Amino acid sequence: MIIKSSCLQSLRDVIRTKRYSLQTEKSYLYWVKFFIIFNDKRHPKEMGPAEINHFLNHLAVNRGVSAATQNQALCALVFMYKHMLEQHFDGLIFSYAKRPKNIPTVLSSNEVQLLLAT
């Protein structure tokens, strides 16, 4: 991945200084770059919680990403704001997406008897 933006290069330096894995670096850079492009290439310093929530909603509603993917994007953005830009959103807590619960399919006793009878 070629990084031309000084913002992304700074983020890369912070990630490497903190000794995150190469895969984490790649995914965080991807999500931050996607976030910047989604917001008309505005610098993250000019954006805040409203833009982050709008981006995460876009991922869930329009892109149909899984809860795990949405959480990964959120982690990348929180990392950037906390460790690179040193901006803390006091009193604001972003909620992580929850995976839907799979309700097990249970057969009734009549259905079990029919299955065993055949």
CATH architecture: Orthogonal Bundle
Helix and strand sequence: HHHHH
What structural class do you assign from the helix and strand content? Answer: mainly alpha
End-to-end Cα distance, whole Å, is 59 Å
Strand content: under 5%
The radius of gyration computed from the alpha-carbon positions, rounded to a whole number of angstroms, is 21 Å
**CATH homologous superfamily label:** Tyrosine recombinase, N-terminal domain
Bin the helical content: 55-70%
Main sheet properties: none
Secondary structure tally: strands: 0
Number of helices: 5
Specify the CATH class: Mainly Alpha
Shape: elongated
Arithmetic mean of pLDDT = 88
Point out poorly predicted stretches: none
How many domains make up the coordinates?
1
CATH topology: DNA polymerase, domain 1
List keywords for this structure.
0% strand; 118 residues; elongated; DNA polymerase, domain 1
Topology:
Elements: H1 6-17, H2 22-38, H3 49-61, H4 67-84, H5 109-117
Helix pairs in contact: 1-2, 2-4, 3-4
Notes on the structure:
The protein has 118 residues and is an all-alpha fold. It has a single domain, classed as Orthogonal Bundle (DNA polymerase, domain 1), CATH 1.10.150. The protein is 58% helix and 0% strand. It has five helices and no strands. It has helices at 6-17, 22-38, 49-61, 67-84, 109-117. It is elongated, with a radius of gyration of 21 Å. The protein starts with 5 loop residues before the first helix and ends with a helix. The mean pLDDT is 88.
